[in-house]
Amino acid sequence: MDPKGAVLVAGTTSDAGKSAIVAGICRWLRRRGVSVAPFKAQNMSNNSVVTPDGGEIGRAQAMQAHACGIEPSVALNPVLLKPGSDRTSQVVVRGKADGQVSALSYRTRTAALADVVADSLAELRATYDVVVCEGAGSPAEINLRATDLANMGLARRAGLPVIVVGDIDRGGVLAHLFGTLAVLEPADQALVAGFVINKFRGDPRLLDPGLDQLGALTGRPTLGVLPWADGLWLDAEDSLSAVADGVLGRPAPPRGEQWLRVAVVRFPRISNATDAEAMACEPGVAVRYVTEPSRLLDSDVVVLPGSKSTVSDLDWLRRSGLADAVVAHAKAGKPVFGVCGGYQMLGARIRDPYGVEAAPGTDVDGLGLLDLEVEFEPDKHLGTPSGSAWGVPVTGYEIHHGRVVRSGDAPMLEGEGSDRGHVLGTHWHGIAENDAFRRLLLTRLAAEARRDGFTVADDTSFAAERTRQADVLGDLVEQHLDTGALEQVIRNGAPADLPVVTSGLARSAP
């Protein structure tokens, strides 16, 4: 197979399944020997990773790169917006932080960023046979069309055919698909080649009359109906969207006599929440997100994850009563583990003299569980460090403005982090993805929590689980999409004779 081309996967809504379907298409192509790369022009997420070329991109694009069998790079996600509040975001361009914007002020930057996006996509198309692009939000957000970088604006500029995905689990999917097409102006509609329905439960034949009518109304085929798939929760763009009843993943029964119950505090600006995923892959480890104090009462371990707005989230922690509950948990001798922003909160002081995340000159008390002082600096530290901890090798990645300016604690890792017995912390994200270290960490946390009946597994591979989930996505595409029709779209673009659907709402946009 040599399709040579590109396609844009758009969605009727956020969380319609764009990231997963892009990964599935990438995996399907990769398994057929096609050189393929993912691309997301503009992402808005606080879940990010550091690439081997030294930049920061959305974690979902790193997951998609894994599905392609390639290393992630800044070209895969040239614009990343990291929300620090309801109205402001940090802009990351080609992997490097480049100022703060509001929703309105961002519009003044999109013309220049469109050139960055175009150059990054051209770079990928020159390197790979196929580029599978992911939209952002929905192309039906016509109020944003004039400055759109990731949906129809990208499709028009690059001549990309578009497939629109709808999540049937939300209800009203046929109306969503029709309406998304209908509000687009004719030149945008001309690029929409077909539809995909995601997360269907039951007999797909029940959908056939509706799909036939949708095809008659729009002149576009539905390329497939993907069934609901349990167990797809690693590396989600928004990991919280994959959480059912607060529980992360599908906990496997314990190997020993007891479970280890892990509570991850869900900050309003939680960042890299995916750090808990590797723990949740282990049999007998039940990981859940919590937002109020009572949920800590029966927890063995408390995890404070990263935060895009550490000072603000620390204030929320106190106002919610969770700060007192975390301190009480630690004073009872039960373990607390902090990562990045959560690690900083565990210390004695946090200072922000330059106004990086708070007002200039902000100086606040931490929780006082570690002998640590942190100061924010304007330049963000990005890194992919490696070292050792407790006699085993460890790798991770760092994304933070806060620097440790004083520590009286023993290091947790080789020269990094804090270790006070039952209270631990590190700036390194991703360390629990190291299998040998994760087993030592869980064994120690269980011992500190006095869960003597918990036994860590010796055969869990986080990398293998990540690969398995990529293969599941590839199987879904291969088995449930019309891959022949998809190949034609990738190779030849949208058909030239597609009808315009009139709604009366579409208006011209550049």
Task: Please summarize what this structure is.
With 510 residues, the protein is α/β, with parallel strands linked by helices. It has 2 domains: 5-41 and 62-73 and 111-233 and 469-492, 3-Layer(aba) Sandwich (Rossmann fold), CATH 3.40.50.300; 256-456, 3-Layer(aba) Sandwich (Rossmann fold), CATH 3.40.50. It contains 14 helices and 26 strands.
Your description of this structure?
The protein is of the alpha/beta class. It has two domains: 5-41 and 62-73 and 111-233 and 469-492, 3-Layer(aba) Sandwich (Rossmann fold); 256-456, Rossmann fold (3-Layer(aba) Sandwich). It has 14 helices and 26 strands. It has helices at residues 18-31, 59-68, 110-127, 152-158, 173-182, 186-189, 208-218, 277-280, 310-319, 322-331, 341-345, 435-448, 462-480, 483-492; strands at residues 5-11, 36-39, 42-44, 48-50, 56-58, 79-83, 88-93, 96-102, 130-134, 162-167, 192-200, 222-227, 260-265, 270-271, 285-290, 301-304, 306-307, 336-339, 349-352, 362-365, 372-383, 386-389, 392-395, 398-407, 418-419, 423-426. The strands form seven sheets. It has a six-stranded parallel β-sheet with strand order 2-9-1-10-11-12, sandwiched between helices. A six-stranded mixed β-sheet has the order 15-13-16-18-26-25. The chain has a four-stranded mixed β-sheet with strand order 3-6-7-8. A hairpin with a 2-residue loop joins strand 22 (386-389) and strand 23 (392-395). Helix 5 (173-182) packs parallel to helix 7 (208-218). It is globular and about 70 Å long. 52% of the residues are buried. Residues 505-510 have low confidence and may be disordered.
